[in-house]
Amino acid sequence: MKNVFILLFSIFFANILCAQEQKAIRITKENKQREVVLKENKRIFIKTVDGKELSGRYSVENSSIVIDDEKIALADIKYLKRNPAFTSILTTVLFVYGGSVATIMGVALGILVDPNIFYLTIPGVGLIYAGLQKPNFHRKFKAEKNWMFEIVTIPE
């Protein structure tokens, strides 16, 4: 009985020591009362007021955001977007694959069938270029459109 009590007490004590509150960015729109919460260590894309673009997993330190060892104050954010790895990889692969198929078909059919089909290579090259530019179709949360950024702690 004594061993069970000590085991339960040590598990409870270890749980209290390891339990942490997770920080997040709360994005709210003033006039519509909309709210979006992005937990820490999610992938985001930020453009700052001075034109710097940063992408990657973020962490919170002293009411500022840290991405790739660069601190960004919340007041310096021009806009913020989610940037999940899965959708980034999927859109890149689909655009590059679709563009290469269109380009190869345009060249092959242009040589074998009709020279006017060479024009199919133009959208194919455009798709390849768009795929290599890291497309991101997620919503932008712009500070100039009354989106407010604040750091909150959420219990885990």
UniProtKB/TrEMBL annotation:
It comes from the Bacteria. The keyword Signal applies. Residues 1-19 form the signal peptide. Keywords: Signal. This is Positive regulator of sigma(E), RseC/MucC.
